[in-house]
Write a structure and sequence with these properties.
With 212 residues, the chain is an alpha+beta fold. It is 34% helix and 26% strand. Helix 3 runs antiparallel to helix 5.
Length: 212
């Protein structure tokens, strides 16, 4: 199950907001040595705003072990600010129905089969959350091997938006992922996960009302 929340709804998910910042520090600062802002073992950046939507996978102790972030392209976003030259196939998005996906990360200390399961659930969460927010496409920058193995091979074809660039020593590019129920069906078939993975604040509030 993937918990999906914003700053506004994070209080319904306990320590999930702070826990995902701690996982990001472990993945991106400690493991990948990114020179990004951090404080007291938590990683953050200027795109952690009230508009950001967080999708997190938590273990039985409610500790975040997988994380991803989404945000609309109508506000400042990473690709536009840092790598605009990598979008040459069309204009940089600035639309309420095109969002940016960033900070996809999984705890590297977990067993490989579990990491694969978490990745599959996070990718499904991207799609399910996008459909809930009426998003038509996700833009992101990713390693070439990640686009191929994590998305293309699972039935979610990425459309390249520009040239390659070496990031962290690996060939990377900006891609656009189309959002649709048909692609969700393909993802479910490829991952073998046929039930919804997403839990939002609305789900929690509805369960609370239903129990009364």
């Amino acid at each position: 199950m993937i918990d999906c929340f914003t700053y506004e709804t994070a209080h319904l998910f306990g320590d999930a907001l702070a826990s995902q910042f701690r996982l990001r520090h472990k993945v991106f600062v400690e493991k990948q040595q990114w020179g990004v802002p951090n404080w007291r073992g938590m990683e953050y950046d200027q795109y952690d705003t009230p508009a950001a939507v967080y999708c997190v996978w938590r273990d039985d102790d409610a500790v975040v072990r997988g994380v991803a972030r989404l945000a609309p392209t109508t506000i400042p976003y990473m690709i536009k600010d840092l790598w605009p030259e990598l979008v040459t196939n069309g204009e940089l998005p600035a639309s309420p129905d095109i969002w940016e996906s960033t900070r996809l990360g999984i705890d590297h200390d977990l067993p490989k089969p579990l990491r694969r399961r978490i990745l599959s659930e996070l990718i499904l969460a991207y799609m399910e959350a996008s459909l809930r927010y009426q998003v038509k496409g996700l833009i992101g920058i990713g390693y070439e091997w990640c686009w191929e193995h994590s998305f293309n091979r699972q039935g979610w074809p990425v459309r390249r938006l520009g040239p390659n660039k070496e990031i962290d020593g690996l060939s990377s590019y900006v891609g656009l992922l189309p959002v649709s129920h048909a692609h969700l069906h393909n993802l479910r078939a490829a991952t073998g996960i046929h039930s919804p993975v997403l839990r939002t604040a609305d789900d929690i509030l509805y369960q609370g009302v239903a129990a009364e």
